[in-house]
Design brief:
heterodimer; A: 239 residues; mainly alpha; CBS-domain; 3-stranded mixed β-sheet; B: 85 residues; 3 helices
């Protein structure tokens, strides 16, 4: 009788192990694989060990099997948790179908997550009056300036135009090139937003362009950072 | 019966090894190594039952602890810390 129950438990166990390992292969990202494999394989192996205990009874073999169950129940979830944290800190991205990232919203948010991707850029040989029209039409206060190849060469804002105008210069003939701020502080999409927020306060920027291999891919304004801070607070209240 | 157990567990270990080889991130490989360790513990338990040799069970206990320490060390390494932090 004990033999049959033991064999049944071991059968369940090996099937769970197989299922867990299939999950390890089939799941789309590290976090899904981790949870599929760790849970199934821990349960499966504990079931096998318990089956061995039932089969062997209170012999040295059976008692060692129970001891092993205790070890695995303690160590396996701990290891999985440490590994998930390690993978996240290592920068492993979540699967694109993931719907929430509470851990990340509290600690690591990168520029890519919050930047405004629909950027308005202006060529450096555009007239200032056209640039002004663009700013007014798009309801924005500044935009990156690009050269003919699309590489970022500066940034032009309301302030630049007003300063230029206040300087008593003729605004109708000027090009964006003449008035833009050419020393741009820009960041890569992988930058931590804390760093960007720091740069914005220290240098009194209103916005920073996000640049990937020379080309502007997004822009982060003070408002974007404010929005993300507000939404993080909401999430914390929910969870 | 033992053949079924052994074949199923061997299949599981091959799936783990496939994931170790495939990656793509170091964390994926570490997960697969961890899982491989736990599967081997189950394997040892079945062997010790079949051959009535309880030293396989000693191997299983040692293996489960070593797999744990190895995984924690690799996880800490991924996190960018040292093992004793």
């Amino acid at each position: 009788m004990n033999e049959i129950i033991g064999c049944a438990l071991i059968t369940i166990g090996v099937l769970f192990n197989l299922g867990g390992c299939i999950g390890l292969i089939r799941m789309p990202d590290i976090y899904n694989r981790l949870q599929a494999a760790t849970k199934c394989v821990t349960l499966g192996t504990c079931s096998i060990l318990f089956g061995v205990f039932v089969y062997a009874g209170f012999t040295p073999l059976g008692v060692k099997a129970i001891l092993c169950i205790v070890f695995i129940l303690i160590t396996s979830p701990t290891a999985a948790h440490a590994l998930a944290k390690g993978a996240y800190k290592d920068g492993v991205k979540l699967w694109k179908g993931s719907v929430a990232d509470f851990y990340g919203s509290e600690s690591i948010l990168t520029a890519r997550d919050i930047m405004n991707k629909e950027i308005v850029t202006v060529k450096c040989d555009t007239g200032v009056s056209d640039a002004m029209k663009l700013l007014v039409e798009m309801k924005i206060s500044g935009m990156p300036v690009v050269d003919a190849d699309g590489n970022i060469v500066g940034i032009v804002s309301e302030k630049d135009i007003i300063d230029f105008f206040a300087g008593g210069k003729n605004i109708t003939k000027a090009k964006v090139r003449d008035i833009m701020t050419s020393e741009v502080v820009s960041f890569s999409p992988e930058t931590d937003i804390n760093k960007i927020a720091k740069a914005i306060t220290e240098n009194k920027f209103r916005r920073v362009p996000i640049v990937e291999s020379g080309k502007p891919v997004g822009i982060i304004s003070r408002r974007d950072i404010l929005q993300i801070l507000a939404s993080v607070k909401d999430k914390n209240e929910v969870s | 019966m033992i053949n079924f157990f052994v074949v199923t567990l061997l299949l599981s270990t091959f799936l783990c090894i496939w994931r170790i080889g495939r990656g793509p991130t170091p964390a994926d490989r570490t997960v697969a190594i961890d899982i491989l360790g736990i599967v081997v513990v189950g394997f040892c338990a079945i062997l010790s039952m079949e051959f009535k040799q309880d030293f396989y069970m000693n191997v299983a206990i040692a293996w489960s602890l070593l797999a744990f320490i190895g995984t924690i060390a690799l996880a800490k390494h991924l996190e960018g810390k040292y093992f004793d932090e």
